[in-house]
Amino acid sequence: VARTHVDRLSGLDPETIVLTDVGNECQAASYLPVMASKYVGLDRNVNNVAVVVQDPTTGEVLSMVGSYDYWNSNIDGRFNVAVDGLRQPGSTIKPITYLTAFAQGYSPSSMVLDVRTALPLDNGMTYVPENYDRDFRGPVSFRAALSQSLNVPAVKVMDMVGIDNMLRTAHKLGINSLDEDSDSYGPSLTLGGGEVSLIDLTYSYSVFANNGVMSGMPIKEESLRSGFRTLDPIVLLTIKDNENNVLEICGTDLKSSCEFSNVDTKIVLSPELAYLVNHVLSDERSRIPAFGYPNPLELGRPAAAKTGTTNNFVDSWTIGYTPQLVVGVWMGNSDSSRMIDVSGSKGAAPIWHAVMSYGVRSMNLPPIGWDRPVGINEIKVCYPSGLLPTDNCQEVVRDVFITGTEPIALDNMWQSFKINKETERLATIYTAPELIEERIYQIMPSDAADWVMAAEIPQPPTEYDSVDGLDQGIFSEGAEINYPLPFDYVNGNVVLQGSVGGDGFKFYKLQYGQGLNPDQWFQLTSDNYQSVEDGDLGSWDTTNLTGLYTVQLLVVRDDQRFDISTVQVTVDNELPEVSIVSPWSGRVFSMDDESIVIQPDVKDDFSVDFVEIWVDDIKVETRTVAPFATRWNIDTFGSHTIHVRVGDAAGNVARSEDVDIFVQQ
Which pTM value belongs to this model? Predict the structure, then answer.
């Protein structure tokens, strides 16, 4: 079946089934999903494949394919990729990251932001992960993030749990590689930035399938490593000759060449932790947005599965299981050259589907799932926060929790606001009751600000109704500064606006002083005897000022009474500083790189308002949340010029020097 699918991806007739070694037609190949017509006849540059089939209850390896063709020296066919090949696992390693999070008290309904993210590295550079489809989905649950194999949330979860903890979990589950110091790995480890073998990865998934219990044969004491697994998969039961005569039964005297006495077991995970992983990886509905329906991960019975794809389609993976059977599939090229658009779902998954479908039928395995442990509760939560629902919650879902990890706080993302439906401002005590309309908005964490803007998520107004808005014909008495607003950032020549007048109005004057409560005032204008209604009061030249200031409007009346209005502002006349740390001028990229990390270095005395990324004088992205690094998806080869513009809250705008790069085909 594995060779048949490789041949299909090499452009051969998809109806042709490779014969078995004894000349029979491979029955499992009949379960391969039908290829889409647009892919038929295309050579995807694939030459190798490996498969491991295991019984999770005993640890026995039931079947193994080490390469496409043992006798083919062009692909180094005698090299057993399943056992000896160390390859990057892509997203098939993600369940271990999420398992680590579950062990720390997180749950499948915990929320993580799928937004543009830039993580600073120890070398001063920035890591900017991307999803497979280069898109972002905003706030999502751990369940959705893992089921749909979203990269950005996986990196964020890795950052939450710690690389050291994730590695300890991996070793305990059966991964014998990934044994360098944790400083050798970065956040991309959760996306497959290390190397594992197919048999180790399949063995680790068998622990999930077997409710947290590892089964196999004990590792000899001299080979044990602290923190790593203590059992190995069982590979040999008997040794036979080419006529099927039994030469040796392994382990009868514990001195044979294949020492094995009986199956040993070790509890690696609690049943509750294993259940959370199984519940998520077998959630067919949750994975539909990424994989569609139907898809190769569906067997018509409870089954958990995870695909993986490495950069440039070098490796294609699928590992999955039922409670009685685990199958791991790797596809790629022996020389690690890239395949052509062969993702985990297109390359390894169809083979996994066929082997699993044939296996459960030929072995007469009942279509059972995983029993819920006593330490698991199911409750209603609000999506996407994962907190307890309120009346404002717009999406209530049910999810599973380890007892004691259920949320106790109420949802705070879906919030109700009272709006003046005529002015579209926030209602106040001045708003007529018949004009008030209650609306519910989704309020995101500040880190999602750029995504909220790009996705055009409706947000509540920021301005409040005032007495002025009730009847524009009524002239407000007293003194009022309408602009600038309290704690605005200003620069240059500021035109102060507002209203002065009312009974007994004599004159007004403007003055300013440094700080919240100035000890000394400086007059801005001479006494002005003209009343003003929502107009210009005077101008203030801030050119030589910087920092926090208070502006005061003083209205004097005929009876010597006076009214005062004050507003505090921050004066900022300094341009921001901006440069581009990466890439540097003269750097050469390839179209195979797909995208380029653009890392600006931005500084401002007070507050950065926005950072714009420009390529070839076209603005490609605006960022408002630090860190400001981003990725530009390469669209054409040739020379490109990059610059960055930064604006601060006061309106000062600076531009970086140009960086010239070259993209070759």
Answer: 0.84
